[in-house]
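[RESIDUES AND BACKBONE]
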Amino acid sequence: MKPFQQDRREFLQQSVMGAAAGLTIATTSHVTAQPVAESAKVDITNNIDVLVVGGGTAGHVAAIQAGRAGAKTMILERNSQLGGTTTTGGVAFPGLFDAWGKQIIAGIGWELVKESVELDGGAFPNFAKVPQHHWQNQIYTNQFLYAVLAEEKCAQAGVEIAYYEFPQTVTHTGNSWQVDCVGFGTRRRVLCKQIIDCTGGAEVVGMLGFERLREEERQPGSYLYMMGEHHEPGRNQIHRLYVHGADSSNSRTATEANLTGRRTILEKVRRENKRLMHLQPETGVRETYRILGETMITVNDYTDGRVFEDAISHAFYPVDLHTKTGVKPKPLKRGKVPTIPLRALIPKDSRNLIVAGRCVSSDRLANSGLRVQASCMGMGQAAGAAAALAARTGTTPLSVPLGDIQALLRQHGQIVPTQS
């Protein structure tokens, strides 16, 4: 008998003996994946209305909104799941959806958060109560449930998901786009009417040559893990390691951030002699590029709670700039609720292109508050609505009547700012 066969037989015998003794054995269940049409083909083409690049905090919400509005929509996501910072990054306590005793961000992002908490038997803060500290109204969310619920809602909205793929070239074809993408074993050509860039660092915007802004020194990233005690998703926060110099501008800088974070955590495990109980797959990045938009949100706009004429969503979070010495949030003054204008999502002088998420056109201090999940979800929904309407009417997002965008957002649960 070969050694491998003998080892396997001994393992099975020991497993049976363990079961007889009352030990727990992991069970195996079965499911069959549906066949993928022409899966052996390398070159494929999709003809759609709206392409969302990046399925993170803003991207999956944008895609669901576009799909629900009737646009044929696809998400390109270079990782293996949706949700971005909430799921892959592990910051599964999104906020803030409320301000000064009332909810100010709702819509599709809130729908997902609410359903994931309810399905997990979790708890919600009391939005009617103004907390002493802003983090007290963040919502503990099971990151694993959130990711699969996001996929379910995409499927229900008719959104196609392409994991492990990213654009190589983006070119104009008349009033449309040709986006050539690559994944392992796949070369995909997407012909679309509108692009929503939700890559975090406005990577499509950069590929197209539109101006982006970036600081010389960026905020540290956070690598999340749990050591020495169990992590209960949806019930507690986990340990955080600041990774200074973390940069997701390209694959090389992202690789270096992840290697640095994991190496440091391994050293900590050895030094403290504690078990590593949980480890996120990558470093969460707070800051890379921002677009230069048709307008820019300044920190004064943000802290004054300016209601822009073309406001499409609220935002609410302290000015929250992380540095080498930590972070000292600067809370907003009582009653102030910032807003996000549509023009801040439009790269200057562009057409058929819109962004959502932390790359919103803003100065650095304003961006430190705008970049959090609830605000990005609101931006994502607005971008999805604008792109879907632009695709339907054969125009560009900035030319769609603002009232039509706001009406569609309200129809799908978004709380739209109003002029007082």
Q: What stands out?
A: Residues 43-214+290-411 form a domain with the FAD/NAD(P)-binding domain fold (CATH 3.50.50.60). The mean pLDDT is 92. Residues 410 and 416 are 7 Å apart (CA to CA).
